[in-house]
Amino acid sequence: MSSPFQRPSGPAEHVERALCVLAHPDDVDFGSAGTVATWTAAGTEVTYLIVTDGDAGGFDDTPREQMGPLRRAEQVAAAAEVGVTDVRFLGYPDGRLELTLDLRRDISRVIRQVRPQRVLTSSPERFWERIGASHPDHMTVGESTLRAVYPDARNPFAFPELLVDEGLDAWTVDEVWLGASPRADHAVDVTDVVDRKFAALKSHVTQVSHVPDLEGFVTGWMQQTAQRLGLPAGRLAEAFHVVHTA
């Protein structure tokens, strides 16, 4: 007989609701849009929570006051390409995220609103072999989200204003998927939905229009991921570290 405390050996095959919490517009699309496309195709309701508007991004002379609204619109368009219509923004300043109680509360609020069985976010660990994956905002959002998952969102006595003033009951998330993790142990084969991922990425005009061969670059990246995690030759994959949190 298995122990009642034994954790599942892998992620759930299907969940009803998933929440993706990322720092900037385009983060979810570079790392996870193919995976999200497989979830929505299977009937999972997916919500995006983007912590900043990405107002410090871009590669041209677009006025700074215009960049945030542009990037919000790009993220909404990108989400639609992979079947996501619920896109929320917290409006924190790009490039200046800190691990604060306010950020934990704001993420906890959305977890209690959406009530997801699965949360996808950035790894809070620095990836020394691929330093670009470890943007400080990414790491801060990953750690903040994990703290919101445990203990904040499930504890009715944490941020009591969420329950008392907003009527948001505590909610326990079953599993967290960490992207850009040095501990990635789960590959999602996205070969059959890669066109949807590319469509999502190309929606981020302010961020990718200067890249001469975006599809080639991202394809090579996903081929390496698939090979590293044991998928058959010719397949494309996105990779995650899956953490069981219930």
From TrEMBL:
Domain of life where this protein originates: Bacteria
Name of one Pfam family that matches: PIG-L
Organism: Blastococcus carthaginiensis
InterPro entries, per database record: GlcNAc_PI_deacetylase-related (IPR003737), LmbE-like_dom_sf (IPR024078)
Keywords associated with the record: Zinc
Organism classification: Bacteria, Bacillati, Actinomycetota, Actinomycetes, Geodermatophilales
Name of the featured protein: PIG-L deacetylase family protein
